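Fold sample X.
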Amino acid sequence: MKKKLIATVMAATMAVTALTGCGSSSSSSAKKDIKVPTEPFGDTVKYDPSVEINDGKDVSIDLWEWGSDELFQEIIDRYTAIHPNVTINLVDNPWEDYWTKLPLALDGENGPALFNVHNSYHENLINYMAPLDIPVEDLEQDFNGVNAHVIDGKVYYIDYGMMTGSVYYNKEMWKEAGLTDDDIPKTWDEMIEVAKKLTIKDGDKIVQAGLNFNNDFHQNYLLGLNYQLGENLFQEDGKTPNVNSDAMKKVMQMLVDMYDKDQIGSKDFGENCADSFGQGQSAMVIQWGHYYNTLKTTWSDIDFGVFEIPTFDGNPYAYNRYNGESTFGVNKKAPKDQQAVAQDFVKFFLCDDESQVDFNLAMSTFPAKKSLADNEEILKNPSLKVLSEHIDHYIWPGPMPSCVEEDMKKAGEDIFYNGVDIDTALDKAQADIIKDMKSSSFQSVENLYEFAK
């Protein structure tokens, strides 16, 4: 992390009150030591703390988010320590309400100037957003994946972190099976052999699954392993799905064989793989980064390790897909003085390494900021460390409509539970996704992958 000339000041954490009925707000009366920078900081994009906001006159804005009050409050406190004339009211909304209330608020005249974004709701929000007041080429110098967010030469939000799937394994079960670190599999064939050693049966009944993918095979296998075989999720036009491809059929057949032929798990054992692992029933699962924090909090008694997802031949086109955790959105209908604060806050967030590290660790995402790729704090998190070597070989398909996951889950369930053959199930998923996406403006960005063919 770059050295900064800083002055330490005592700053009171401001008390926040919700100005609307849209949610509760976070408040704190504890005092903290806040390091206030006195010189510009950042990489290509730089933040100058000496520049006054709103000519030093008082200004107040709302920041809407869901469920991470303390994390957001800390960055607010650091920002307002630099700009004491700025008040940022943190308004927390439950996730299930957020995506209904936010578009309605932004459509009116009193919506929040600043709001948390999730790219799965891109189509619901993008028309309400102002482009970031930062040159695109500067963002591209500092952050990975910026080009996938460029719309008509402008960027409205980018990723601050990248999340994907890795293998979580139970260390106690691993040791009891006689396995060591040298047995960490690199290929799917090796993975299956390891899983066989981890599987325990009582007669024909599984009492410990070597690998469990029940309930989320669509997220962690079907919508990602196709890349290992060199095929995208969408065809060349970027709109037509490609889910009945040869690669997808191979992945689906591998999953069927894992249960039916290799018997390293069962569709009838551990109906939710994440819960089954946490409850000590399954030895390995593939989960995305957020699972690391779930294990640490919900199933803290599980001694687990993490390794990178295996590949078919050790030399994949890409390892898997990823999804980004998004930066804030700026409300284009907010008053100009509020928009100026919101734009400045986003720049501060992007330049402030402490905030970047805090947010990525909280979300278990690998930093999109290039200068933090070898950050010591980041690499202490094993779910992030395993990604560090090949993070540039993961693909973001773009903000896919939710129907893609839903229809692929239905296809897998038909295969596993309803006796539908693979070709028929995937052909139906292909047709269903085309139908469900008929009115969508989605355009795949797979062609922007650094190693695209």
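Fold sample Y, listed below.
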Amino acid sequence: MKDRRLITLLALFVLGFVGASLVQPTQAKTVSSDNLVLGNPSGAVASSSYPTNYLIQRNQYALSYHRDNGIANWVSWHLDSGDIGSVSRSDFQTDTSLPSGWYRVATGDYSGSGYDRGHMTPSGDRTATTADNQATFYMTNIIPQAPDNNQGPWVDLETYARELVSAGNELYIISGGAGSRGTIASGKVRIPNSTWKIIVVLSQGSNDLSRVSNNTRVIAINMPNVQGIRDNDWRDYLTTVDALESLTGYNFLSNVSTNIQNVIEARVDGSTTPIPTAVPTSGTNPTATPVRTATPTPSTGCTSSRLFFSEYVEGSSNNKALELYNNTGASVSLSGYSIQLYANGSTSASSSVNLSGSVANGATYVIANASASSSVQNLANITSSVANFNGNDALVLTYNGTVVDSFGQVGNDPGSSGWGGTTTDRTLRRKATISAGDTNRSDSFTPSSTWDSYSLDTFSGLGNHSVSCP
């Protein structure tokens, strides 16, 4: 009897083993070593001696943290089917792993700011276990995102990425914010001017780095961090990895062969050929240009030598703003640039502002009235009294004292309705066919020939411009 029982147990064991070996294994969940397979974009180091480029590695993602900005420089993660399950969303939490003495951003720091607590590695990308999902809610993985950005095309792209995984792919994703729209939390947390993302798409497999080729699909987007874009398609913000490298200063996909990088980083998703790179300037890498209305927006081959006015807002009350556009083909320092306001037909400037900082190629720079509504100020890089104009006032942009663009006619007062009856209580945008400024500040001004007119308090295009030459 004992022998028969032993034989039966052995048979059951063998059957169980064979049956288990026939079951298709599930895809392994991402672990820490997967997240930087394609490279460390900024050479981040896990040492408190590097407070502006501090490396944090978790199974769920890797990131470079900037202590003084209170947000990550970038976050990198691997995504495949093993990372996606059905656990519930967790709660936001302070990241207590940061070095002692560093300010640790709290969940309440975003309260009342008007900005969402926006995930870089999405909660939806880490739903296999509760611990995985909780890791995405550390405030080091969060940046301030405008609700229409975060809840609109940004989340649509996140959903699309998971659909790619469901279709049998695995992804390497890098995400972050660029530029600055100001701060929240009493200056402790920087608000990015735009949010960017890179997605490298591979079929499910192994030895992933070696499988990246000239034909590998790479999605790169750069999306303005503003209201008014909730219903936009994320594809409206397609750009190139090269353009994002120029914008951020990081070296993406650095572990990939240089020859392959040169191809896939210069190509916009959906196009069949790389975008030609701009001629490099001293000390910079060649940069390709994006081809759709993103931030930065496309260069078209008809570049200008200087910045120019691209939008004029003469709205209700103090809702007034000016937008400059960089169509030069390279990043531009604002040192030497100045804007002057000539009121009521005067030939002497009543107000001026000297600009500082820089503007990436294809990007914009917005100057707003300090008393404008939050809808305008949230889109501004700076506020200035030079934006205290009326529809009959002329504006001049100079570089080292030389006129590079003008709006209106200095020395001429067209009356309260403005030039052509369209510069008062209106928003004007430079026609897409205009690629350089009007350098004669005293010539006659007919807005309809070079500007498109929009109704009072139209702010939807502020902070985003493109040029399309005929």
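Sample Y note: The first helix runs from residue 2 to 22.
Also: The chain has two domains: 32-264, 308-454.
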